[in-house]
Amino acid sequence: MERWELAVVGAGAAGLAAAATAARLYKNRGVSDAVVLLEGNPKPGKKLLATGNGRCNLTNLHVSPASYHGDVRLADPLLQAYSPDRVLEEFSKLGLLCRADGEGRVYPRSLQAAAVLQALLQGCEEAGAVLRCGWGVASVKPSEGGFLLQSPEGERLWARRCILACGGKASPKHSWEEAGYGLARQLGHQVTELRPSLTYVKSSRKSLRALKGMRVKAQVSLLLEGKPLWQEEGEVLFGDGTLSGICLFNLSAQLFQEHTAQPEVALDLFPEWPYPELLGYLQGIAKSHPGRSAWELFGGALNLRVGEQLAKELGFSGDQRLGDLRLPQLRQAAGLAKNWRFPVLGTGGWEQAQVTRGGVPLKEVDGLTLESKRCPGLYLTGELLNIDGDCGGFNLHWAWATGFAAGRAAGEREGRKSRA
């Protein structure tokens, strides 16, 4: 049976970062063949390749606790220790150049997720970490002062230390399975309720079918009994019974507590204009172009199909002219465009989600090394932990931070000079 200093379970973002970091530290001390990286899929980094529409938004210059949910207070020390600058320094050591856009989102300079994966794989190879694909882990048990790992086919290996970097339940087509939570439970950890997050919002409004595929810029608000609970500006994509886009994905992360009333999404299609200015604009259009169809009231300012849908909801008929519209109707039009409401029925499921809400409570691991407080020598990383972030690189940043930290902590532990 093979024996290793460290087994890293999962060759995704956190696992690759952990394996490259730990193997480099072992190598610097003259310990060879120390780290094995186990991946259930035929190839590593499947989910990483899909991030950012293939461009890999790998961190954000504005990382702060405010962008995260879950055990945020306990995550703060690690987020401070692994700032965006420090994460980018680690990638620079791997030879990867990065650049930020105007909103702080950081991408590889090539805008290719494949470049990020290649840099991490080369880092693992250069440091001597051994990658085993198609080697899923079905069980992990404490054994001989270390851990005995077994695959579904019955293959076994022993490791002195173990890092769980298996990812979560979200986007299962990009994962081997959500095995990590089961492995964490086997080793004495709790797992909070798991829910899909960063996904689309479902609504019963019938007009969504007619708007399928249309996009608008808007301020998006989550309302409960008419009171705003959360707001963000961004692009909204209409679907058949759904609302999506980055701001809606972030809104979906706010829908986990039980509400006494049905939540609503409100769209302000003119966030740059207060109501009086919008009303003045509509009055001017109606006065200047009285012969145009009433359905063209928003034609010069909004997506044409969206503008026509607003006119329909306002009850304008196809043969009405702009000159026929009276002040009360224009006021109603301005009000709808500033506060277009959609009842919320729920969110998309695991297939559509980008990240998992919930996981192993951070109180069960060391805040800076990620070593388990319940099972010494075990480390937990990334999506397995009860932390999830907003869209914009925050979840990958958490994966890198936990992967680098766990890899460093495990790699600094004394090991043998070579593997027998």
Automatic annotation (TrEMBL):
Keywords: FAD, Flavoprotein. Residues 6-408 form the RsdA/BaiN/AoA(So)-like Rossmann fold-like domain. The keyword Calcium does not apply. Pfam families: HI0933_like (PF03486), HI0933_like_1st (PF22780). Its cofactor is FAD. InterPro entries: BaiN-like, BaiN-like_dom_sf, FAD/NAD-bd_sf, RsdA/BaiN/AoA(So)-like_dom, RsdA/BaiN/AoA(So)_Rossmann. Residues 195-355 form the RsdA/BaiN/AoA(So)-like insert domain. This is Aminoacetone oxidase family FAD-binding enzyme. It comes from Candidatus Acutalibacter pullicola.
